[in-house]
Write a structure and sequence with these properties.
The complex is a heterodimer of chains A (306) and B (153). With 306 residues, chain A is α/β, with parallel strands linked by helices. Chain A has 12 helices and 9 strands. Chain A folds into 2 domains: 136 residues, Aspartate/ornithine carbamoyltransferase (Rossmann fold, 3-Layer(aba) Sandwich), CATH 3.40.50.1370; 154 residues, Aspartate/ornithine carbamoyltransferase (Rossmann fold), CATH 3.40.50.1370. Chain A has a 5-stranded parallel sheet. The longest helix of chain A is centred in the first third of the chain and has 20 residues. Chain A is globular. Chain B is built from 3 helices and 9 strands. The longest helix of chain B is centred in the middle third of the chain and has 10 residues. The chains are: A alpha/beta (306), B alpha+beta (153). The interface between A and B is medium-sized, with 22 and 18 residues.
């Protein structure tokens, strides 16, 4: 039950909650397609506090609230206003809870949303805290798999790219570990999953590690590709020599199972070649579009209206 | 083992026994025991022990420990046994216990954690496992292992 609760970490959501979220997101997809205002959030106000720049997450939260018939107040660059005046996050949140019914926030420090939830009587949704959690992205990733395959149990998922710094990939792996899945983690050695994190994956989850895609993606149902950032490499030549080996092109696509899908949290740079966009495997834009119905479902469940 | 007492009995104070070998120095630092103290402290290091193989012992004359000090000791020496001594007699004996939640004792080693920022909260950890000791930061959810805990105590 998510009613009146904050959503800070994927651990705040049980598998039962997930099933409920998926079913409701599917219904919300119908609401979006019908283009009708369901008036579920009339008179409800969402505050968005973004201490870090964001395009898609913020737009999709605001769009989701508008789609539900609610309204949004926002600070486009919270860090330049409150922080500059020396206000603590605890104080900012206690101010914002008086102005709204639900608060969506992104902050550069890990644990910021948990702290906010501690000081707020209104529910907080974490839209990313430093390199910590980004639970709504994780839920929409899971929803995409559920929507495509009708279930998550039994899926073989290959996670490719930056598995060290990638915020989305960590909470996704933890969430997937709660299902009966087989994981393959593929990354250059310098960007492999941190040991500290790897030890959190339960022993019953089958995990294969690899440095290359060939021989490891052919049996996958899902290729979850993440961005390898140039900034992570001190030596730019190393990046250039490496990026090709982690780039999904038509040759890789031809080796995939016929019903496999390719996902990416976006923005992508060179990890997926543009020509792949036109193949039947590409799902990343669809995945991004699911951000709206999933966030509509979450807002409705948290505010107790569905 | 030789039957003679390795270190003398104390009249009033606290005996911390069954400290993992080598950890007595950490216990002294937790209790802020240095050359400026006005009471006697005796330390035995690497003492043969039936239960543990080897152990350390700390005896503090004239000092009784606070709950927070015992909690800190439990993180450095989870097997430690505490004896309260009054007039050469043991009046109370118990084992330290790692609390379920640890608040305000150690800082989160993640410099990017909100608990290290200027906010009105104390660092707070949930105990994930007692043996081996592993804590999870309530805020950033970072796991910290025994070594990191010791460095932070």
């Amino acid at each position: 039950m998510l009613k009146n609760k904050s959503l800070v970490s994927i651990d705040d959501v049980s598998n039962e909650d997930l099933e409920e979220i998926f079913t409701l997101s599917d219904r919300m997809l119908g609401v979006v397609e019908s283009n009708k205002n369901p008036h579920l959030m009339d008179s409800k106000i969402m505050a968005t506090l973004f201490y870090e720049p964001s395009t898609r997450t913020r737009l999709s939260f605001e769009s989701a609230m508008h789609r539900l018939g609610g309204s949004v107040i926002s600070v486009s660059d919270a860090s330049s206003s409150s922080v500059a005046k020396g206000e603590t996050l605890a104080d900012t949140i206690r101010m914002a809870e008086g102005y709204s019914d639900i608060i969506v926030m992104r902050h550069p420090l890990e644990g910021a949303a948990r702290l906010a939830a501690q000081f707020s009587s209104k529910p907080i949704i974490n839209a990313g805290d430093g390199s910590g959690q980004h639970p709504t992205q994780t839920i929409l990733d899971l929803f995409t798999m559920w929507k495509e395959f009708g279930k998550i149990d039994g899926l073989k998922i290959a996670l490719i790219g930056d598995l060290k710094y990638g915020r989305t990939v960590h909470s996704l792996i933890l969430a997937l570990s709660r299902f009966n899945v087989e994981l393959t983690v593929i990354s250059p050695p310098s960007l492999s999953i941190p040991e500290q994190f790897f030890s959190r994956i339960p022993e019953n989850v089958k995990v294969r590690k690899s440095e290359k895609m060939e021989g490891f993606v052919e049996d996958a149902d899902v290729l979850y590709v993440t961005r390898i950032q140039k900034e992570r490499f001190a030596d730019k030549n190393e990046y250039l020599s490496l990026i090709g080996s982690y780039s999904v092109d038509l040759k890789i696509v031809e080796s995939l199972k016929k019903n496999a899908i390719i996902m990416h949290p976006l923005p992508r740079i060179d990890e997926i070649k543009p020509e792949v966009d036109f193949t039947k495997y590409a799902r990343y834009f669809k995945q991004a579009s699911y951000g709206i119905p999933v966030r509509m479902a979450l807002i409705s469940m948290i505010l107790g209206v569905n | 083992m030789d039957k003679t007492l390795l270190i003398a009995k104390i009249k009033d104070g606290t005996v911390i026994d069954h400290i993992s070998p080598g950890k007595s120095f950490k216990v002294l630092s937790i209790l802020n025991i240095d050359s400026s103290i006005g009471y006697t402290v005796t330390v035995a290091v690497h003492v043969p022990s039936k239960k543990m193989g080897f152990k350390d012992i700390v005896k503090i004359e004239g000092r009784f420990l606070e709950k927070e000090e015992l909690d800190r000791i439990s993180l450095a020496a989870p097997n430690a046994a505490i004896s309260i001594i009054r007039n050469y007699e043991i009046t109370e004996k118990f084992h330290v216990e790692i609390p379920e939640e640890i608040t305000g004792i150690i800082d989160c080693p993640n410099q990017n954690c909100i608990s290290n920022a200027r906010e009105p909260v104390k660092p707070r950890f949930l105990v994930r496992s007692k043996n081996p000791l592993s804590l999870k930061c309530y805020y950033c959810e970072r796991l910290i292992n025994e070594n990191e805990i010791l460095q932070n105590l």
